């Protein structure tokens, strides 16, 4: 099994890298062997541009059997606690399009993209989770990927009305696009660090979200490697 684990920033998967440093055989700066599982770690950068380029290059060269993206996210759902985990089954590109006076239109609305053109299902990038060696028991979430973190009532209402999202990140859609296009089974794991609201960074629980994210990531990778 060749597994890719990717994150936007090293901060988000530092405990996982520490686990690999202690529990696995280090092959190079970014490659490890854990039992019969070869693990590549890719810090792809924040945002869809960095993620798409890093992943596109990596998937073409390394051809992993599975890719796992781990990161923190904002939640639209107040009933989901900070630090709780989801796996994303549906991604929307929520701020790529055109402004028509005070209305936002995405690329499907203005007919530059057609619904269900590959690799889209309708207007979403959908993970069926087919081909994965294991699937954690986590809530499934619809996600929007944005370049501009949502922080106004108007934007939040627009996203909720249009996409009915549970969570928001800055990379998920690029990850889904790259994996669907390359035909590589994939899993996007997100831990909720904040609610999507008018920006107040003092309320974010990044250390808690990173802890729960990495506990789950380690557990999943141990399962894939046949260690639990
Ligand atoms: O200081 C800020 O305003 C700020 C805004 C968004 C993200 C950050 C980060 O430091 C984390 C980068 C990372 O986190 C993901 N993320 C987390 N929460 C959200 C969100 O509410 N909306 C979109 N992305 C979020 C994102 O995927 C970034 O890679 C700081």
TrEMBL record:
It is an enzyme of class 3 (hydrolase). One of its GO terms (molecular function) is methylthioadenosine nucleosidase activity. Gene3D superfamilies: Nucleoside phosphorylase domain. Pathway: Quinol/quinone metabolism; menaquinone biosynthesis. Its EC number is 3.2.2.26. Keywords: Glycosidase, Hydrolase, Menaquinone biosynthesis. GO terms for biological process: L-methionine salvage from S-adenosylmethionine; menaquinone biosynthetic process; nucleoside metabolic process. It comes from the Bacteria. Residues 41-202 form the Nucleoside phosphorylase domain. InterPro entries: FL_hydrolase_MqnB (IPR019963), Nucleoside_phosphorylase_d (IPR000845), Nucleoside_phosphorylase_sf (IPR035994). The keyword Hydrolase applies. Pfam families: PNP_UDP_1. It catalyses: futalosine + H2O = dehypoxanthine futalosine + hypoxanthine. GO terms for cellular component: cytosol. Belongs to the PNP/UDP phosphorylase family. Futalosine hydrolase subfamily. PANTHER family: 5'-METHYLTHIOADENOSINE/S-ADENOSYLHOMOCYSTEINE NUCLEOSIDASE, FUTALOSINE HYDROLASE. Catalyzes the hydrolysis of futalosine (FL) to dehypoxanthine futalosine (DHFL) and hypoxanthine, a step in the biosynthesis of menaquinone (MK, vitamin K2). This is Futalosine hydrolase. It comes from Chitinophaga solisilvae.
